[in-house]
Amino acid sequence: MPGVIGPDRVRVVVQPALTVPGVDGVEVLFIHEWTGLTRFASSAIHQSTWQEDTGIRVRVVKGGRIGVAASNDFSEEGARRAAESAREMAEVVAPDPLFPGLAPPQPVPESDHFDEATASTTPDRRAEGVATLIAQCGRGLMASGAFETAASEVGLLNTEGQFCWAPSTQASVTTVVTADEGGSGFAETFASTLAEVDPEAVGRRAATKA
After folding, report:
1. Domain count for the chain
2. Cα 46 from Cα 139, distance rounded (Å)
3. Which domain holds residue 109?
């Protein structure tokens, strides 16, 4: 399982972008996210997937012109190249007279929306949750849906001195229960932590509706 990259490492990696020469200002948006998804249909798990992505978006200001470039190369060299690409774009676009400038330094509140247990949820743990959901379906009922756990960290830095960084997590369970007689019931739940979602309750609610 991946871990949080963290603000210190983000500062180091994007520094070459912030110091690219020949520009008036630079802004870097950093996003790192990872998601585990377990899908089920006809009351059986049929797919478990994992996805992770890290990227930066660099905005360069030069003479009132703005260039933007994005990259999935989260390295010091990747950050430098992205900034150079954004600078090249800024050199050929028309000036933006409405651009207010890059954000000045502002205090940023601490984020408390990250839960390590949610960020490191295993496929087996999601499968256990799906099993408790399916167990709520009696004779003649079938459940389909998904159990997803996700985590992300987002950071923003610019040459004005603004820096902010925050991690977060999310968990969700969604299901549709269908009955042999043609009825169906839908239920879902979303929360910022794994502990707050109750697959059993979701399954019971959908089964009752069906």
Report:
1. 1
2. 21
3. 7-209
